[in-house]
């Protein structure tokens, strides 16, 4: 059994200063809002999640819906919603797995492949606009630090 650290269980009685503007969650939310503004202005026909799904399918080929969701860091319900919307747009096809009836396999259609190939240079421009105030070293460091979170 692990022993408790000296501070565990103690109630914090001293006044802790908390400034919202200095908190990581607040700063990440602001950065994300800015990125989404840029994304929506540059690529209004796709949401960032839709683009992520299509880009991953372009990279990986046909994937089970469950595996696709894990690769793009979305829960099952969100993945299903994104897949359904992309299927309605004609960008992806969903079909039952020939080897496992419980599994749905997702793949890009020809229209979806053309759409995502056209969107990739735009997505690169979006990333560049989002990070335009960072030099290459700062950008590399930011990405490495975000990977640690």
List the helices and strands and how they pair.
Blueprint: H1 24-42, H2 48-60, E1 63-64, H3 65-71, H4 76-88, E2 92-96, E3 104-108, H5 110-130, H6 136-148
Antiparallel strand pairs: 1-3, 2-3
Helix pairs in contact: 1-5, 2-5, 3-4
Protein model, in words:
The protein is mainly α. It has a domain at 46-148: Winged helix-like DNA-binding domain superfamily/Winged helix DNA-binding domain (Arc Repressor Mutant, subunit A, Orthogonal Bundle). It is built from six helices and three strands, in the order ααβααββαα. The chain has helices at 24-42, 48-60, 65-71, 76-88, 110-130, 136-148, and strands at residues 63-64, 92-96, 104-108. Strands 1-3-2 form a three-stranded antiparallel β-sheet. Strand 2 (92-96) and strand 3 (104-108) form a beta hairpin. Helix 2 (48-60) crosses helix 5. 15% of the residues are buried. The model has no long low-confidence stretch (mean pLDDT 92).
Concise structural overview:
The protein is mainly alpha-helical. It has helices spanning 24-42, 48-60, 65-71, 76-88, 110-130, 136-148; strands spanning 63-64, 92-96, 104-108.
């Amino acid at each position: 059994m692990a022993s408790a650290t000296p501070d565990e269980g103690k109630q914090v009685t001293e006044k802790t200063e908390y400034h919202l503007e200095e908190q990581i969650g607040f700063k990440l939310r602001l950065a994300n809002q800015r990125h989404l503004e840029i994304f929506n202005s540059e690529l209004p026909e796709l949401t960032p999640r839709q683009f992520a799904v299509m880009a991953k399918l372009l990279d990986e080929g046909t994937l089970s819906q469950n595996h696709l969701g894990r690769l793009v860091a979305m829960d099952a319900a969100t993945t299903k919603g994104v897949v359904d919307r992309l299927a309605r747009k004609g960008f992806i096809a969903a079909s039952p797995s020939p080897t496992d009836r419980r599994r749905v396999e997702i793949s890009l259609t020809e229209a979806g492949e053309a759409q995502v190939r056209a969107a990739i240079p735009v997505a690169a421009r979006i990333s560049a606009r989002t990070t335009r105030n960072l030099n290459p070293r700062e950008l590399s460091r930011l990405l490495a630090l975000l990977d640690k979170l």
